[in-house]
Predict the 3D structure of the following.
Amino acid sequence: MILSTAAEAAMADHVDLRRDVLNGCPWHDVKSMLRDVGLRPTRQRMALGWILFGKGDRHLTAEMLYEEASRAKVPVSLATIYNTLHQFTEVGLLRQVAVDGSKAYFDTNASAHHHFFVEGEDELLDIPGAEVLVGKTPTPPEGYEIARVDVVVRLRRKS
């Protein structure tokens, strides 16, 4: 079984629904995505959204997005990148994946799925949902519920 909460399932339905109404124009689609989740389409959000979502599903760190923005001549600070990534995550446009204490990736595929992390190459790859079985999870403490379960399988190249 793949563990998923009702909230996560609802968010996945919203994400799929949102992508169904996109018209193929990246600029228009980003503006629609932002408005659909209640974010004002500012110039910086539009530019970063275009960079993030214009290349399909992928995994980026804040630093990777900052490098892409710099190459695209988008004048933005690393702090703004972090703020925007966290805003996009809070509204369900992105999914944050922590691979260790100091590195977090942001996934443009916000649906419920798990990941491979290639050590030494710092690459994150999607695992198809049906390939991971999550067994019994612990009972959360009183007053809490499990929000989601993230499985990150670490890989290294064979010697």
